[in-house]
Amino acid sequence: MALNKMKDLKIGEMERITVDYVKGILLPTSTCEIWDQIWNFEAKPDDLLIATYPKAGTTWTQEIVDLMQNKGDVDKSRRAPIYERIPFIELVIPAIQCGLEQANEMPSPRTLKTHLPIELLPPSFLEKNCKIIYVARNAKDNMVSYYHFHRMNKGLPDPGTWNEFFEKFLAGKVCWGSWYDHVKGWWEAKDKHQILYLFYEDMKKDPKREIQKVAEFIGSNLHDEVLDKIVHHTTFDVMKQNPMTNYTLISTAVMDHSISPFMRKGAVGDWKNYFTVAQNERYDEDYKKNMANTSLTFHFQF
Description:
The protein has a single domain (about 1-290), classed as Rossmann fold (3-Layer(aba) Sandwich). Helix content is about 40%, strand content about 10%. The protein has helices at about 1-10, 30-35, 35-40, 60-70, 80-85, 100-105, 125, 140-150, 160-170, 180-190, 200-205, 205-220, 225-235, 235-240, 275-290; strands at about 20, 25-30, 50, 90-95, 95-100, 110-115, 130-135, 195-200. It starts with a helix and ends in a 12-residue tail after the last helix. Pfam families: Sulfotransfer_1. GO terms for molecular function: sulfotransferase activity.
């Protein structure tokens, strides 16, 4: 299994990934090399897809959905790590893991994951009218979280300093492309397709309400006590201690939690600890320009 291969890696054995472009979007080279296979992926009508920009609540949403599908049975949701339960379709770590292979070997109904912007989504998902859950997180917190994820994860390029990463993120020169294009593209698509568009900040503020939305969307009729159980088991503190969701089972040669844990803070407003006054002013100006023609709005703090 992929997990065993990841465990066997020695410290320092894995080099940082290289990156390339697909239709103007920066992606890991290993993903670009099998792009035709990814683009031609055959979705099935009963597939459920969880789509996000990286570090926008992906694992959280995956665990909510998995618990829901198992009627709140925590033991069933601990049958395997989250990345084995829900394949990441465009992920390729050579000699370790290929999301496409995982997905193709999985029996239906499948729950799958992607970080792809809507324009790079394999067309079969929309053609087959698959249900898609999209989660968006405010850009500032998303940037901070993504920066720390780069620092600890060799499956991403070296982020450089915070200041350097700030510039890259602002320019959309990071893996999976511009945050602006990503959140706006999926927002524009939500009324034409079966897309439930959620906000990370809403999930933090009223998790039960948002989890109820997910249940209704996927047709999961759960009793109130089961919903409460799912709310509890998907809190940040519980998931941070759960090896099936916190990515600690992956070799430190791939993810080094001593640099920064995969589940770091999960907070709204942590960006204030990183943005300088000048950076904040610059970002606000850039945000205003890029978000001028959309009805999409975000909360940057509570």
